[in-house]
TrEMBL record:
Residues spanning the signal sequence: none
Keyword Methyltransferase included in the entry's annotation: yes
Lineage: Bacteria, Bacillati, Bacillota, Bacilli, Bacillales
Similarity-based family: Belongs to the MGMT family.
Active-site residues per Swiss-Prot or TrEMBL entry: 138
Protein name: Methylated-DNA--protein-cysteine methyltransferase
Enzyme Commission no: 2.1.1.63
Methylguanine DNA methyltransferase ribonuclease-like domain mapped to chain residues: 7-82
Any one Gene Ontology BP term: DNA alkylation repair
Catalytic class of the enzyme: transferase
Native species: Filobacillus milosensis
Gene3D superfamilies membership: Methylated DNA-protein cysteine methyltransferase domain (3.30.160.70), Winged helix-like DNA-binding domain superfamily/Winged helix DNA-binding domain (1.10.10.10)
Domain Methylated-DNA-[protein]-cysteine S-methyltransferase DNA binding intervals: 87-166
Amino acid sequence: MKPLTLTSYDSPMGEFLIGGHNEHVYFVKLGEVDDRHSWLEKWRNKHSVDEPLHDLEAFPDVKQEFDRYFNDGLTNFTFKTEMIGTDFQKRVWQVLNEIPYGEQWTYKDIAEAINHPKAIRAVGGAINKNPISIAVPCHRVIGSDGSLTGYASGLNHKKFLLHHETKSSNWLHQTS
């Protein structure tokens, strides 16, 4: 069984649940406490993870990067992750990291980037399973018509993040 350390982070969007072991983050989950608890139990069972150790001081570098993201316009996260998923999901999640800050790609763009242009629905499924919110930026994926489609943490949070990044991105370009 894999060990698991849990901590929380208070963001402008609400509390995040951060889980991992040593320096590697397995997930960053946003949402209501009951939803996070239910998600965590399913995730632990699926991935054979030990009973979690709660440590409010864990992952200080991750919390610092989120502070910078929300306050200073940090555009790239550098904390260590261990993405737990299928090979297909990992390929999709890797491409998510290639979406530049302040930009949006479509599900079709992602499918083409992994050389599976017809796998748009499968890409959507993989994006929905992204375990590391914000740092692996699935919120930057929109529908082909420009609509804000699905976001596991809710469309209100997706709108908040896209607005935050567009505002920060415009500011970054103005100061360059």
